[in-house]
Amino acid sequence: MAAQARNHQARADLAGGQAAHALHTGTGTSEHEREWYRFWISGLEQAVLTTQEALGACQAELATCRKARQVTRLRVDALERFKQKARQAYDQAELAEEQRLTDAAGTARFVAQRRALLLGRTGSEEWT
Q1: Residues with Cβ < 8 Å from 57, sequence gap 6 or more?
Q2: Which pLDDT belongs to residue 28?
Q3: Where are the domains of the chain?
Q4: pLDDT of 122 higher than 60
Q5: Cβ(44)–Cβ(14) under 8 Å?
Q6: pLDDT (tens digit per residue) in 64-112
Q7: Where is 37: in which H helix or E strand?
Q8: C-alpha 118 chain-centroid distance
Q9: Are 12 and 60 a contacting pair, CB within 8 Å?
Q10: How many CB atoms lie within 10 A of CB 41?
């Protein structure tokens, strides 16, 4: 994560600045140099605060995105289940229609054969 890396770098810069300030404060440096280090460290501290705020915003956005992804995943799963049930219902309706047509054809054939038998005809004779 870029914001986290920037925050770590800002903290490292601040630690280095504080170490340099401590090193130069111990030696006989002028007031002007000590003041420069204080302002420099103040700027580094401000950079750390800025990167912490940016990191917090990025983490909040990440949490929001993760929640949205989770909700979306649940919706996709529900749609997949609905699609599967709809497909099964369609397939069952197709099979039922096919069975109905087969039964109707069989019934029509049976009725035709029964009528032919009742009229004394066989199935091989032509109707006149």
Answers
A1: 3
A2: 59
A3: 2-83
A4: no
A5: yes
A6: 999 999 999 999 999 999 999 999 999 999 999 999 999 999 999 999 8
A7: helix 31-119
A8: 70
A9: no
A10: 16
